[in-house]
Amino acid sequence: MQVAAAKAGLGDTAVAGFDDAELTAEVIRSFAQTPDPRLKSILTQLVLSLHDFVRKTDLTFAEWETAIDFLTRTGQACTPVRQEFILLSDVLGVSMLVDAVNHREREGATQTTVLGPFYVGEHKPTPHGTDISGGNHGEPMFVESRVTGVDGKPIAGAKIDVWHADRDGFYDSQKPTYAVEGPSMRARFISDSDGRFSFRTILPSSYPVPTDGPIGELIRAAGRHAMRPAHIHFLVDAPGHQPLVTHVFIDGDPYLDSDAVFGVKPELIACIAHHDEPVMPDGKPASGPWHVMTYHFQMNPGSGAVPKPLMPEAAE
Asked: Do the beta carbons of residue 254 and residue 260 sit within 8 Å?
């Protein structure tokens, strides 16, 4: 703080009256020697935004202590297979905002959305047509997809990681049997010479994000629901193209207009064809109703790093 003129009985100098605007400036000055220009810029904007938030809300001590406790418990809730901070980012819309500012140029290419906390890393390539349901109960679904560039030319040899929840809304990595039984409802496929790949699974359903921790408390306090519409995750990686992280959502799901993590884009909604024929497209018999999902992925030219698992220990 600035030093004021001398005051009676206080010696030669005394501290000037406290100025909260000067406090903000002083905190920013404390980062002036940060070697990395980008880090310096981020820290500056972070301090400005946080201090402005406190002023605008007239934050009380009780509210500040509640916030500290909430963030502490959010960190404590994280485990090798659960990322509560990512969930916080998701339900506040920050994850989708980060995705948006990093993918502004999508004309002609498939829209992106959040990676989510249940990507556990790549798997060994799986033959086309494989049933990845792992014996989980549900209505069978056959997925037929194609990968091309924005120019429409097929992309051969693209790596496609897929994963989704079961009909009860749980991913394999959420289950206590995951370490022993290994993955289910997730796999990697390689596109053929025409850019195509296919697999069998079960029809996914809408499900709630985890609500047994601090983020669940936040959702309930806000009077929000915790539901995500049914979807399958896709991560597509091909040489000479920007990696694509996206979902394909099930048309008609009641939560398409109110996704708890704000991840739905109209272009990512697929119509699912319902069938009751005795044989599925791969020639195998069907024991009841079944469904077909078709979706065409279009990739932008370029390059980029494939996302790493948000909880890397889960992939070990």
From this structure: no
Does an H or E element contain 96, and which?
helix 94-102
Q: Residue 307 has which token pair?
A: 């996302």
Is residue 255's pLDDT more than 60?
yes
Dig out the tokens for 93 from the structure: 């819309």
245 closest CA partner among 102, 108, 131, 125: 102
114 lies in some domain? yes
Tell which residue, 95, 102, 86, has the closest CA to residue 242: 102
Supply the range of the domain harboring residue 33.
3-59
> Would you tell me how many other CB atoms lie within 10 Å of the CB of residue 299?
23
Backbone angles phi, psi at 210, to 5 degrees: -55, 130
Question: How do residues 83-133 score in pLDDT, each as one tens digit?
Answer: 899 999 999 999 999 999 999 888 899 999 999 888 888 788 999 999 999
Same domain, yes or no: 24 and 124:
no
How many domains does the chain divide into? 2
DSSP SS3 for 77:
coil
Dihedral over alpha carbons 56, 62, 66, 68 (to 10 degrees)? 80
SS (H, E, C) 162-210: EECCCCCCCCHHHCCCHHHHCCCCEEEEECCCCCEEEEEEECCCCEECC
Please check whether residue 99 lies inside any domain of the structure: no
Can you tell me whether residue 259 is helix, strand or coil? coil
Among residues 202, 230, 225, 206, the alpha carbon closest in space to that of 291 is found at 202
Question: Could you tell me the CA-to-CA distances from 222 to 147, 206, 209, 218 in Å, in that order?
Answer: 40, 21, 15, 6
**Residue 40 forms part of a structural domain:** yes
Evaluate whether residue 96 is within a structural domain: no
Global pTM?
A: 0.86
- Residues facing residue 275 across a β-bridge: 290
